[in-house]
Amino acid sequence: MTALLLDGRVLAKELKAQISQQAAEFKARTGYVPQLVVVQVAGNAASDWYVRSIRRSCEGVGFGFALHLLPETCDQTTLEAAIQQASNDPSIHGIIIQMPLPSQLSADGAVAALNPQKDVDGLHPTNAGRLAQGLPALVPNTPAGGMALLDRYQISLAGKHAVVVGRSNVVGKPLAQLLLARHATLTICHSRTANLAEVIGQGDIVAAAVGKAGLVTGAMLKPGAVVLDFGINEVAEGQVVGDVDWESASKVASAITPVPGGTGPVTNMMLLQNTLQAAQWLAEQA
Amino acid sequence: MTALLLDGRVLAKELKAQISQQAAEFKARTGYVPQLVVVQVAGNAASDWYVRSIRRSCEGVGFGFALHLLPETCDQTTLEAAIQQASNDPSIHGIIIQMPLPSQLSADGAVAALNPQKDVDGLHPTNAGRLAQGLPALVPNTPAGGMALLDRYQISLAGKHAVVVGRSNVVGKPLAQLLLARHATLTICHSRTANLAEVIGQGDIVAAAVGKAGLVTGAMLKPGAVVLDFGINEVAEGQVVGDVDWESASKVASAITPVPGGTGPVTNMMLLQNTLQAAQWLAEQA
C-alpha cells in the first residue's frame, strides 16, 4: 500500500485564501479588521522566530498584528496587567501569550488573566471546558489543524476507532475531545500505557503527539490506518522528524501526514481562523 | 469467580463520619458553617424528592441548607438573578441548580450565571476545563463517587485499561478525565461504537453510564474486570437496575458495584465533599 499524503501545505494555502476573503467580508460588513496581539517576554530565540511567523501569517490575510514585548526580568503583575489591558481593549480580538515564559512567571496565572473570548490559542480552562461540553469554543490550533486535514481529505470518523498517543493539554486531550465529538470511539494512551503497540494497532485513526522521534512504527499500525503526526523532533541540525517512523508507517497506512509539511503548516491557519471567529463573536456582542 | 462487592452504602457511611468531623474542624478554625443552596424551579416531583434527600444529607453532617424555590412559570432573568444573588452572597459556599429545568428555561444560561467556585455539581465549563487540564476543580459528583469507590477498595489504575461506556457531560466525560489523570489507558465508547462488546472486553476497569438496562453483560467482560455501574433504570414499579446485567457480570468480574447500593449512595457524599472544599477555598480567599 502506498499511503495518500495528507498535505498540510496544500490545505494551508487553501485556508489562507479562504480566511483572506472572509476577513475582507467581515471588514466590509462590520468595519473591523481582525486584530491579533502577541504578549511576549523577551529572551527566547525560538519564540522570536515563532512570533515573526505569526506576524507574517497575519499580514498574509489582512489581519492587524501587534507585539507587546515585555523585558526578560518582567514580574507576574506586569505580565498580567499587559494581558488584562489587551483583554479589555475593544480593538483587539485575539491574544496570544507566547510560551514558554521565563521561570519566574506562572503560565497558569497568565492564562487566567486572559479574556476567554480572545483566547485564540484555546488555553483558558473555560475554552477547554466548553470544548469538553460540546459548546462553541476557541480550540487549540494544533489539534484543530489535524481535524481540518481529516476533513480536507474527507476521512470519515463516526464509529471509527481513533487512538490518540499523548495526553497534553494543548494537543492530545483537546484532539481526543474533537474526535469524540465527531462520534469516533476514542482511546488515549500515554507513557504509562502497558501495551502501546497493541492499543495503537486498533486504531482506524492514529494520532501521535508525544515528542518522541519514530515512536509509532508501521509494524504497530492496522493496515489502512489513517495517521496524523504532530511530533516535531529535531534529530540533527536542521533535520526535523515526527513521532511516526515515516519509512515503515507510510507503507502500512492508507493516509498519513508528512513531517514537515503535514499538521504543522495548518496550525497557524487555525490561529487565524480562531482570531476571525473571536472577532465575529465580539462584533455580535458589541 | 465471585466478585467483590464495591459497597456504596458502607463507603457513604464512612464518608459521612469523615465529612462531619472535617466540617466541625472547619467551623472551629474559621467560624464558618458550610452552607449549600438549591435553586429549584417548582413543578417536578422527582426533583422535590431529590432536594429533600440533599437537605437530609446536609443536616446529617452539620451543613447549612437553604432552598430557593422559584415558581414554575419563572423566566430566565429571574432564574439567573437568583443564581447570581447566591453566587455573590459570602455566606453561601455551594449552589445547586436543580435539573431538569422547565422547557422555557436555558440550562446553559443558568450554569453560566453561576460562580464556578460555588459550582458544587461541577457543571460549569470552567470546572470541566480545569478538570481536563489537571487543575484543582469542583468535579461532578457521580463520577467522583465512582473514583472514591475504586480508592476505597484499593483498586489500582495506573497502566490499566479503563473503558467508559457513555459520553455525557455529567458522568462519562468527567469520569474519563479522572481515570486518565490517574494514568489509566482510556477508551470512551458510545452509541456510535461499531464493536461495543469487543471494546468492553479490553477493559481492566469497565464503567457503564448510558441508561440502558443490562447493556453490559458478563459475556462481554474480560474475566477479572472491575465494573462500575452508574445506570439507574426503573424496569418496573419500584424496581431499579443498572446498565450492567448483574446476574452474568458478577460471575465474571473481580469486583462490581451493585444497583442499588453501589455508586448511587456515594454521589450525595461527593456533593457534601465539594461543598466543604468550596467553603475551604472561599475561606482561604476571604
TrEMBL record, chains A, B:
The enzyme's E.C. designation: 1.5.1.5, 3.5.4.9
Q: Does Protein transport appear among the keywords?
A: no
Biological process (GO) annotations? L-histidine biosynthetic process; methionine biosynthetic process; purine nucleotide biosynthetic process; tetrahydrofolate interconversion
Binding site residues for NADP(+): G166, R167, S168, I232
Q: Which InterPro entries match?
A: Aminoacid_DH-like_N_sf (IPR046346), NAD(P)-bd_dom_sf (IPR036291), THF_DH/CycHdrlase (IPR000672), THF_DH/CycHdrlase_cat_dom (IPR020630), THF_DH/CycHdrlase_NAD-bd_dom (IPR020631)
| Entry's transmembrane regions | none
**According to the lineage, what is the superkingdom?**
Bacteria
Q: Which reaction does it catalyse?
A: (6R)-5,10-methylene-5,6,7,8-tetrahydrofolate + NADP(+) = (6R)-5,10-methenyltetrahydrofolate + NADPH; (6R)-5,10-methenyltetrahydrofolate + H2O = (6R)-10-formyltetrahydrofolate + H(+)
**Which residues does the UniProt record annotate as the domain Tetrahydrofolate dehydrogenase/cyclohydrolase catalytic?**
6-121
All copies of the Tetrahydrofolate dehydrogenase/cyclohydrolase NAD(P)-binding domain together span 140-280
Keywords attached to this entry: Amino-acid biosynthesis, Histidine biosynthesis, Hydrolase, Methionine biosynthesis, Multifunctional enzyme, NADP, One-carbon metabolism, Oxidoreductase, Purine biosynthesis
One Pfam family here: THF_DHG_CYH
One cellular component term from this protein's GO annotations in UniProt: cytosol
Can you name this protein?
A: Bifunctional protein FolD
Q: What is the lineage of its organism?
A: Bacteria, Bacillati, Chloroflexota, Chloroflexia, Herpetosiphonales
